[in-house]
Structure formats: structure tokens, C-alpha cells
Write a structure and sequence with these properties.
Elements (H helix, E strand, L loop, with lengths): L2 H13 L10 H20 L4 H8 L5 E7 L4 H14 L5 E7 L4 H5 L11 E5 L5 E3 L1
Parallel strand pairs: 1-2
Antiparallel strand pairs: 1-3, 3-4
């Protein structure tokens, strides 16, 4: 999904009378509400460092970024807007946002010390070979 679709997912979770697991728990629902607010704030305020923008613009071969996340993740609320904005700096960079909890096989390949830690960025080349995570 793209960033717009990811943002719409927050609204769907929060506007559903009886949300699905894990959002049927008050804690997860509150985290999602808070994270939507955090992301909106970053969308209005974030500015990339000019040196970072320049470095991103120097990428000369296609890259595909996979951002593994979930709306309830507080760390992701602060990082995903930056990753999306970074990808926008170069037309050779495409991205896709994937949900950790619904695409288990993907996150299982990128565990952090045995844990399904998110957010996770997987960068692949044009042949779908991982460059780095």
C-alpha cells in the first residue's frame, strides 16, 4: 500500500464501531489514535536535511523500499513519514508499506534478535535482491 492508503487504514480502524484484532483492545485503539495525530504533525512539519536530500538524489539505480509497520506502532508514527518523504526525493526509489501482522512470512525473514520489531525498512535493487535492512 502507499502512504495515502496507510493513512486511510488509520481512519478505517478508528471509524469502525467494532474494529478487528488487535484494535478491539482499548490500548491498541488509543495507540492508533495517537499515532495518526503524530503522523499528521510530521506531515506538516518535517523537513529533510539538505545533505540527506542531496545524497538521496545521487542514487542512480532503481531501488524498491519495503516499509514493514503497523498503525499501533509508536516508533513507526515518527519514522514512516520520513521514509516516505525520503523516497520522494528520487524517482528511482519506489516504496510499498506492508503490515507486519498480516504478512507474517515477510517479517519472519527480517527478525531483529528473534523479534518482529518494527518499523523495518528493507531496501531492494531492481532484481528484488536485498541491498540492506
Amino acid at each position: 500500500m502507499n502512504y495515502h492508503e496507510y493513512q486511510a487504514l488509520f481512519d478505517k480502524v478508528l471509524d469502525t464501531e467494532n474494529p478487528w484484532h488487535p484494535y478491539n483492545s482499548g490500548g491498541y485503539l488509543n495507540y492508533t489514535r495517537l499515532n495518526r495525530s503524530r503522523m499528521r504533525r510530521w506531515d506538516k512539519q518535517l523537513e529533510l536535511d539538505p545533505a540527506l536530500s542531496e545524497r538521496l538524489q545521487q542514487i542512480k539505480t532503481p531501488q524498491h523500499w519495503i516499509i514493514i509497520t503497523e498503525p499501533w506502532c509508536g516508533d513507526a508514527a515518527h519514522i514512516v513519514p520520513f521514509l516516505v518523504r525520503m523516497a520522494a526525493e528520487n524517482s528511482l526509489i519506489t516504496y510499498d508499506i506492508r503490515l507486519r501482522d498480516s504478512e507474517h512470512s515477510l517479517i519472519d525473514a527480517y527478525l531483529t534478535n528473534g523479534a518482529k520489531s518494527i518499523p523495518k525498512l528493507v531496501v531492494r535493487d531492481q532484481h528484488q535482491t536485498d541491498i540492506f535492512t
